[in-house]
């Protein structure tokens, strides 16, 4: 044995250690891969040895290699071996390796559970620490479930080093095992006030992360965080807290009001830029959540904008970037205050840094108005021209389109200008966004009817210009615009001035180099054009010309028939046959134009992008059901046609003419026409009352000055959008003059006694009327479209599982799973298993506790009072000092009204409540008149006592009977020892009950009744009736008489129990009450149903009127019937 | 939330990597090369934040060594930026004048990293 050890250590001397490996890799620069594979072979040998030191060394080297990108998953088992080494230095290596390469898919991970548990409970804090650190990287749902309880215990470890790690890892546990959140939350909350700043910071971090996803659950912690914020000096913690508040304020605007002041103070005082930035961000969030009307509202927004301006003007690029980023957040809600800094933003467009320019671009989006759109876009266009990188240029391009098309083109006053911009953009080389431009062209041409003539002329010029076609191979992106151009020219061919020329352009041989889907569109639209030309020629009785056109098609179409693209090929061959047929008819002098153009009769209307989604599924239609059973898998595979615009603009994809043979085509056209005629929702092409683009301002409609723009600017080659800018200015100037004139007239009229209100003369945005009277054809929506935009949340979001109501009471089933063999250990801690037991044992421990709590109370009085203040109260007052002032005991009693409106559900741990009740009972029996005062005192003490207690026990409130949520089914029978006492019982049903006072409505008590079905019958129509006494009345639903019963809101299948709650109004709390009552129900079994009754006597002791104090917020029934105010 | 932490030199060699979300090993290499590429392409006069896919990269350059932190969009960029420096100061303290060579012997760095990280949260 000894020899073996010696041998092992000698062997080790010759092994490479990590440093040798690193050196070796550095020395083998040329053949690194070879060297490493050699090393891996050595490592494999080393792993086979028994010596743990050798193994650890091998794993250590593997970890390094893994970091360099080599797969080491094959060594997973060896890693576990090293993890279980007893020596810390080895164990650490093992855990490090595990944290680097284990993940949920690692199958050996389940072998680690017990090892990790052992390490977690190790006496050495470093063993525990390393296990926690490692676990945080590879925790799986299984591990989380099995170890949650152990980790939770560690949260109360004596060493802050461990507490800190345990708190942090709880976040990962919550993510993997959301059920653990509720049981662990009270302790987590406790850690917010941990004496160690590291632990505190860890807890803040965890809650901050949790709250960011589901903020509403953490609203009740706001006072605590507020205190932390005003007292902490740790910037890291402050940043997190402030971030957390940013998430909370949207839910509670009053919180925002309270925050503004300390935040602005911080903004003024802090020197840390990160903190400043966070503060500004949160102030913005606060201001967003606040509706305007706050007096210092604009002051704080001004402060933010000012500070941000300083950031943006700073020479540090990082600050500049962040400033712009934050500015864009303000922009969303307060565009006015940002627009004042337009100069700054435009200046940033010239920045050397691309990311800064991009942020500035984002800001521009919100800064445009009708007035400055052209100017801004012009500036952007110059940037496009000089932009060096394609990514930035593409970004510019999309931004230009975004800016122009935002909110339904609301800033565009002149669509001719816009079309020219789009056409200019087509000159961009190598952009990826050809399809975007194309989509815009289509959208504008379809939806803005007035622009079609101009659009068509521009598009035909595009088709004519060779540069796009020629470049189709090298810059695939931009030729997409030809798709739009061809479609527009075809669909609106009636606006074409020289259709023949366009037709020829579309039939050039070069076209065949275009991508297939564009060729297909070409073919289809060639026919549309052809139909238009035929009609034109036949009307002119120019048979010769008509035949020539046909001949042209017959000659040129074969080039598409040979296309590699199936779609283009199919369309071309169909159409070729059609044209040949037409040719025959033409030879016989048969007029064909009518019939050919009938192919394309009717108009296509834009369909809203979500139209299809919004068609409600008719009742009784199951879309998932098979119509026919599927034959085999292989046949059901359908090939999807390549819909080029499908992703970006589904509505265009839908408009693509169906490809089918001519008869089918004609038939469909006919059918469509028919359908359109019958569909009252279809917007016909005839001028129907369509939504006008922009309503003219003012009460009286001012007709738009018609400027003769019908003759578009004839610019050979490319149109220049700049000319429009000048033109637009002139137009506006003229308009203004015109308006002034009218205004003057109007004013005169008004002076004469008209009652119209005067409008100030400023050229506001609305004053600019669009150049064209533009109709934006509204998009079609299906009949019965559902109004909502159901933007489904991602069902895979891991955080959704954490959306847990933390205010609900803990149920038995929710306790964290505890390993059986550890039970003895955990129960060593003075756990309050059950109230009744504790109580019966002796009063000794209690007295001790009492003494202790007296001491504690003095210390914690201040804290308690603060903590105890209802969130609502906390929010409703705004003391200038910002910290809620400590309240004298009994404060709330004098002002019970504070509790009237409880926003956040408050909670009440059942155990405590009962305990306090018992406590108070002893005193009460002696001096019932002093009850109120005493009770309060007790409560206070109770609370401070409880603050300490959880540290000692593992899962909170084990064995306690938790009230079940009203209406919730509970499978297992009630635990034997509970605060519920038996009310009545027969062969069918067993009733147990518990009475709780309610301070919220101070004259009410709530009786929670657990009804357990003991028979094999199904119990239904349960109704509870009580003979009211003078003092106590059952609260009945409105409108029912005093003799009516109250229905129980559930039915009971055999063996099931459930809880119902009934509210009683009490006149005097100094008299005990006995109320006679009856529970009637129908028991239904196989033989039939019988009507049954069970009489009971409800006993209200004086103590049952008591209201007790919660220690945790976790345990409150949220159903409103038993809302306990926070005392 | 921090997604990963990288120390990469100008040649693109990873000196330290730490992932807080599991990334497959071959994707890691790919990610690392892309990350360092985008960092190298930036000049001194550009800001230290890069938008990369659906997260943000925050980097700082120390001589030939880049420290890159990938965070999601809810993180405070400036705080991470300051944290990186904080970390480097700790390293410097630990190794007394830290150099890339020190970092390449990584297990010690890992220890430092853990403690530094936990201090700041």
UniProtKB/TrEMBL annotation, chain A:
<feature type="compositionally biased region" description="Basic and acidic residues">
    <location>
        <begin position="851"/>
        <end position="870"/>
    </location>
</feature>
<dbReference type="InterPro" id="IPR002553">
    <property type="entry name" value="Clathrin/coatomer_adapt-like_N"/>
</dbReference>
<dbReference type="Pfam" id="PF06375">
    <property type="entry name" value="AP3D1"/>
</dbReference>
<feature type="compositionally biased region" description="Basic residues">
    <location>
        <begin position="841"/>
        <end position="850"/>
    </location>
</feature>
<keyword id="KW-0175">Coiled coil</keyword>
<dbReference type="GO" id="GO:0000139">
    <property type="term" value="C:Golgi membrane"/>
</dbReference>
<protein>
    <recommendedName>
        <fullName>AP-3 complex subunit delta</fullName>
    </recommendedName>
</protein>
<comment type="subunit">
    <text>Adaptor protein complex 3 (AP-3) is a heterotetramer.</text>
</comment>
<keyword id="KW-0963">Cytoplasm</keyword>
<dbReference type="InterPro" id="IPR016024">
    <property type="entry name" value="ARM-type_fold"/>
</dbReference>
<keyword id="KW-0677">Repeat</keyword>
<comment type="similarity">
    <text>Belongs to the adaptor complexes large subunit family.</text>
</comment>
<dbReference type="GO" id="GO:0016182">
    <property type="term" value="P:synaptic vesicle budding from endosome"/>
</dbReference>
<keyword id="KW-0007">Acetylation</keyword>
<dbReference type="GO" id="GO:1904115">
    <property type="term" value="C:axon cytoplasm"/>
</dbReference>
<dbReference type="GO" id="GO:0006896">
    <property type="term" value="P:Golgi to vacuole transport"/>
</dbReference>
<feature type="compositionally biased region" description="Basic residues">
    <location>
        <begin position="741"/>
        <end position="759"/>
    </location>
</feature>
<keyword id="KW-0653">Protein transport</keyword>
<dbReference type="InterPro" id="IPR011989">
    <property type="entry name" value="ARM-like"/>
</dbReference>
<feature type="compositionally biased region" description="Basic and acidic residues">
    <location>
        <begin position="795"/>
        <end position="840"/>
    </location>
</feature>
<dbReference type="InterPro" id="IPR010474">
    <property type="entry name" value="AP3D_dom_metazoa"/>
</dbReference>
<dbReference type="GO" id="GO:0098943">
    <property type="term" value="P:neurotransmitter receptor transport, postsynaptic endosome to lysosome"/>
</dbReference>
TrEMBL record, chain B:
<feature type="domain" description="AP complex mu/sigma subunit">
    <location>
        <begin position="1"/>
        <end position="106"/>
    </location>
</feature>
<protein>
    <recommendedName>
        <fullName>AP complex subunit sigma</fullName>
    </recommendedName>
</protein>
<comment type="function">
    <text>Component of the adaptor protein complex 4 (AP-4). Adaptor protein complexes are vesicle coat components involved both in vesicle formation and cargo selection. They control the vesicular transport of proteins in different trafficking pathways. AP-4 forms a non clathrin-associated coat on vesicles departing the trans-Golgi network (TGN) and may be involved in the targeting of proteins from the trans-Golgi network (TGN) to the endosomal-lysosomal system.</text>
</comment>
<dbReference type="GO" id="GO:0005737">
    <property type="term" value="C:cytoplasm"/>
</dbReference>
<dbReference type="InterPro" id="IPR016635">
    <property type="entry name" value="AP_complex_ssu"/>
</dbReference>
<comment type="similarity">
    <text>Belongs to the adaptor complexes small subunit family.</text>
</comment>
<keyword id="KW-0653">Protein transport</keyword>
<comment type="subunit">
    <text>Adaptor protein complex 4 (AP-4) is a heterotetramer composed of two large adaptins (epsilon-type subunit AP4E1 and beta-type subunit AP4B1), a medium adaptin (mu-type subunit AP4M1) and a small adaptin (sigma-type AP4S1).</text>
</comment>
<dbReference type="GO" id="GO:0006886">
    <property type="term" value="P:intracellular protein transport"/>
</dbReference>
<dbReference type="InterPro" id="IPR011012">
    <property type="entry name" value="Longin-like_dom_sf"/>
</dbReference>
<keyword id="KW-0813">Transport</keyword>
<dbReference type="Pfam" id="PF01217">
    <property type="entry name" value="Clat_adaptor_s"/>
</dbReference>
<keyword id="KW-0472">Membrane</keyword>
<dbReference type="GO" id="GO:0012505">
    <property type="term" value="C:endomembrane system"/>
</dbReference>
<dbReference type="InterPro" id="IPR022775">
    <property type="entry name" value="AP_mu_sigma_su"/>
</dbReference>
């Amino acid at each position: 044995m000894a020899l073996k050890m010696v041998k092992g250590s000698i062997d080790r001397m010759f092994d490479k250690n990590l440093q040798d490996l690193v050196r070796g890799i550095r020395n083998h620069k040329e053949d690194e891969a070879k060297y490493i594979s050699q090393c891996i072979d050595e490592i494999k040998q080393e792993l086979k040895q028994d010596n743990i030191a050798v193994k650890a060394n091998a794993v250590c080297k593997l970890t390094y290699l893994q970091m360099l990108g080599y797969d080491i998953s094959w060594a997973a088992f060896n890693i576990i071996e090293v993890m279980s080494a007893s020596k810390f230095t080895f164990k650490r290596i093992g855990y490090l390796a595990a944290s680097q390469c284990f993940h949920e898919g690692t199958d050996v991970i389940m072998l680690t559970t017990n090892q990790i548990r052992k390490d977690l409970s190790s006496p050495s804090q470093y063993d525990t620490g390393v296990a926690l650190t490692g676990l945080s990287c590879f925790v799986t749902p299984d591990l989380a479930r099995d170890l949650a309880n152990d980790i939770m215990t560690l949260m109360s470890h004596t060493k802050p080093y461990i507490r800190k790690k345990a708190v942090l890892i709880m976040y990962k546990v919550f993510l993997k095992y959301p059920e653990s959140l509720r049981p662990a939350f009270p302790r987590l909350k406790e850690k917010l006030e941990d004496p160690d700043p590291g632990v505190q910071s860890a807890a803040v971090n965890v809650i901050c992360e949790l709250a960011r996803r589901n903020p509403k659950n953490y609203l009740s912690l706001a006072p605590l965080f507020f205190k932390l914020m005003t007292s902490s000096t740790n910037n890291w913690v402050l940043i997190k807290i402030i971030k957390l508040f940013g998430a909370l304020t949207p839910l509670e605007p009053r919180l925002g009001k309270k925050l503004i002041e300390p935040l602005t103070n911080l903004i003024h005082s802090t020197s840390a830029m990160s903190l400043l930035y966070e503060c500004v961000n949160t102030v913005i969030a606060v201001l967003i959540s606040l509706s305007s009307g706050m007096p210092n509202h604009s002051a704080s927004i001004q402060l933010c904008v000012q500070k941000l301006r300083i950031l943006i003007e700073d020479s540090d690029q990082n600050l500049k970037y962040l400033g712009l980023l934050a500015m864009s957040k303000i922009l969303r809600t307060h565009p006015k205050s940002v627009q004042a800094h337009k100069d700054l933003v435009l200046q940033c467009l010239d920045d050397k840094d691309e990311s800064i320019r991009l942020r500035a671009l984002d800001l521009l989006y919100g800064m445009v108005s009708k007035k400055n759109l052209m100017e801004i876009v012009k500036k952007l266009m110059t940037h496009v021209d000089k932009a060096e990188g394609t990514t930035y240029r593409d970004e510019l391009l999309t931004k230009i389109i975004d800016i122009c098309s935002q909110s339904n083109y609301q800033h565009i006053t002149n669509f001719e200008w816009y079309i020219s911009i789009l056409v200019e953009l087509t000159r961009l080389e190598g952009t990826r966004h050809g399809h975007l431009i194309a989509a815009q062209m289509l959208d504008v041409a379809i939806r803005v009817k007035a622009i079609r003539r101009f659009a068509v002329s521009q598009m035909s010029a595009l088709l004519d210009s060779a540069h796009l076609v020629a470049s189709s191979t090298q810059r695939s992106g931009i030729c997409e615009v030809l798709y739009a151009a061809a479609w527009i020219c075809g669909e609106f061919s009636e606006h074409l001035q020289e259709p023949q020329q366009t037709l020829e352009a579309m039939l050039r041989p070069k076209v065949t180099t275009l991508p297939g889907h564009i060729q297909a569109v070409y073919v289809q639209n060639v026919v549309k054009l052809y139909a238009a030309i035929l009609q034109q020629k036949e009307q002119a009785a120019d048979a010769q010309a008509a035949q020539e056109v046909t001949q042209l098609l017959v000659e040129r179409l074969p080039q598409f028939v040979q296309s590699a693209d199936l779609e283009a090929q199919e369309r071309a061959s169909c159409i070729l046959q059609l044209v040949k047929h037409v040719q025959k008819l033409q030879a016989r002098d048969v007029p064909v134009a009518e019939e050919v153009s009938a192919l394309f009769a009717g108009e296509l209307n834009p369909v809203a992008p979500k139209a299809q989604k919004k068609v409600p599924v008719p009742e009784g239609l199951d879309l998932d059901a098979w119509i026919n059973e599927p034959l085999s898998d292989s046949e059901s595979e359908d090939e999807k046609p390549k819909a080029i615009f499908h992703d970006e603009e589904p509505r265009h994809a839908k408009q693509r003419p169906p490809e089918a043979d001519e008869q089918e085509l004609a038939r469909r056209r006919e059918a469509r026409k028919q359908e359109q005629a019958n569909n009252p929702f279809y917007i016909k092409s005839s001028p129907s009352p369509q939504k006008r683009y922009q309503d003219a301002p003012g009460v009286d409609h001012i007709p738009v000055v018609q400027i003769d723009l019908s003759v578009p600017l004839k610019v050979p080659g490319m149109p220049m959008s700049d000319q429009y800018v000048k033109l637009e200015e002139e137009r506006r100037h003229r308009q203004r003059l015109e308006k002034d004139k009218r205004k003057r007239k109007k004013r005169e009229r008004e002076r004469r006694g008209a009652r119209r209100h005067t409008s100030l003369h400023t050229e506001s945005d609305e004053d600019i009327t669009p150049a064209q009277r533009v109709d934006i054809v509204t998009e079609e929506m299906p009949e019965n479209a559902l109004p909502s935009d159901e933007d489904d949340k991602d069902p895979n979001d891991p955080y959704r599982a954490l959306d847990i109501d933390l205010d609900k009471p803990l149920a038995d089933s929710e306790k964290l799973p505890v390993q059986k063999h550890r039970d003895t250990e955990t129960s060593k801690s003075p756990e309050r298993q059950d109230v009744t037991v504790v109580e019966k044992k002796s009063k000794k421990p209690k007295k001790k506790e009492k003494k202790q709590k007296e001491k504690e109370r003095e210390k914690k009085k201040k804290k308690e009072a603060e903590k105890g203040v209802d969130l609502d109260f906390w929010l409703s007052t705004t003391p200038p000092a910002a910290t809620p002032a400590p309240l004298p005991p009994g404060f709330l009693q004098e002002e019970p009204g504070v509790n009237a409106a409880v926003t956040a559900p408050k909670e009440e741990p059942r155990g405590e409540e009962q305990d306090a009740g018992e406590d108070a009972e002893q005193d009460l029996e002696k001096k019932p008149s002093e009850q109120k005062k005493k009770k309060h005192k007790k409560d206070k003490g109770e609370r401070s006592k409880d603050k300490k207690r959880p540290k000692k026990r593992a899962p909170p409130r084990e064995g306690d009977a938790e009230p079940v949520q009203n209406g919730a089914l509970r499978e297992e029978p009630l635990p034997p020892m509970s605060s519920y006492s038996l009310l009545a019982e027969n062969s069918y049903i067993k009733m147990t009950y518990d009475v709780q006072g309610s301070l919220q409505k101070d004259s009410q008590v709530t009786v929670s009744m657990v009804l357990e079905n003991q028979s094999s019958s199904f119990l239904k129509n349960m109704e509870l009736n009580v003979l009211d006494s003078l003092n106590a009345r059952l609260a009945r639903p409105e409108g029912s008489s005093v003799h009516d019963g109250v229905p129980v809101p559930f039915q009971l299948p055999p063996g099931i129990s459930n809880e119902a709650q009934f509210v009683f109004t009490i006149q005097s709390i100094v008299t005990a009450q006995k109320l006679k009552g009856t529970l009637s129900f129908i028991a239904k079994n196989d033989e039939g149903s019988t009507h049954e009754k069970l009489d009971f006597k409800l006993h209200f002791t004086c103590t049952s009127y008591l209201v007790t104090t919660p220690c945790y917020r976790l345990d409150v029934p949220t159903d409103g019937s038993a809302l306990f105010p926070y005392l | 939330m921090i997604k990963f932490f990288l120390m990469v030199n100008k040649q693109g060699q990873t000196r330290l990597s730490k992932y807080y979300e599991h990334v497959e090993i071959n994707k890691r290499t790919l990610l690392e090369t892309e990350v360092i590429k985008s960092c190298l392409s930036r000049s001194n006069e550009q800001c230290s934040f890069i938008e990369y896919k659906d997260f943000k990269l925050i980097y700082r350059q120390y001589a030939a060594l880049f420290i890159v932190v990938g965070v999601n969009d809810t993180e405070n960029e400036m705080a991470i930026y300051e944290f990186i420096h904080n970390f480097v100061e700790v390293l410097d303290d630990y190794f007394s004048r830290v150099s890339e060579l020190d970092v390449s012997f990584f297990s010690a760095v890992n220890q430092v990293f853990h403690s530094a990280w936990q201090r700041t949260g």
